[in-house]
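User: Run a structure prediction on this.
Assistant: Running it now.
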Amino acid sequence: MKKIQKEPNERFWRINEICKLIAKTPLSTSQIADKLGVSERTIQRDLNGVLVKYGAVRNGRLWSIDESKIDPKDENQIILAVLDKMAKNVGAEFYSKAHGLLKGISEGLNHPIFVSLSAEKLEKKDIELIENLENVIASRNEIELLYFSKTHRLSPIKIALFDGFWYLLAMAGEKLKKFHLKSIKEIKILPSKFKIDESLENRIKSANSAWFDPEKSFIVRLWIDKVVKKYFERKPLPNQQIMCENEDGSIEIEVQVTHIMEIKPLVFYYLPHIKVIEPSSLADDILAEMERYIKEIRG
């Protein structure tokens, strides 16, 4: 697979390397330029245009990272600290690239941030695939994709992380399909272009899981016990609406979903503090599944 290069990516990795170098030891622009094989003017532009905002300081001819220059109250830097922690969970290869850029930003923060992101680990080949797909999605080129032993002609739309697994969302003709990213064997970029309906992209943004189907939609009404209602108030589900609060402190919510598997795992997770009110077919399906399980474990 031929890796697609573009200047913004090159600059990102160069700034990453500069940050790692001067975080270890003070260096002059000429020393940095020699190590990275670029001009001093390029290094000066990266330092003065980007890294001075995030703790890079000059003392005479030498540049270094001064953590005291990082404002712990800066909302953007707090966000970057969170991203740094998330990158660590994604995988060593991804983290080694992201952390150098974020290190000088996040280490000076006095915020005890911890992020637990349960996600598949990305290896070098996975990151290269994501970079290729990102470029193709931006250029709106069609692709041919080898998935297991079958070739698909697709219009790639989004790269998504659902429940810790990475997916490519793409149109195959008129149908939206999902492809497990790490199971993709290879892609071929085609010269033909495609267009995406803006309404489809908006519907994708409301997806609850990899089971999302943009062609279908129905409402699920749930009863939520007061014991767990705080979780639904703190982090509402996509398209969630609180319909009423009962005298006992419980609430009833409605959620728009496109597939029963978008909501069934959630119900099982919160049992016995959750109940399906509507549709009755979903309530019956969950009850039948629970009865089968109880019968099996009892022998």
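Residues 122 and 181 are 10 Å apart (CA to CA).
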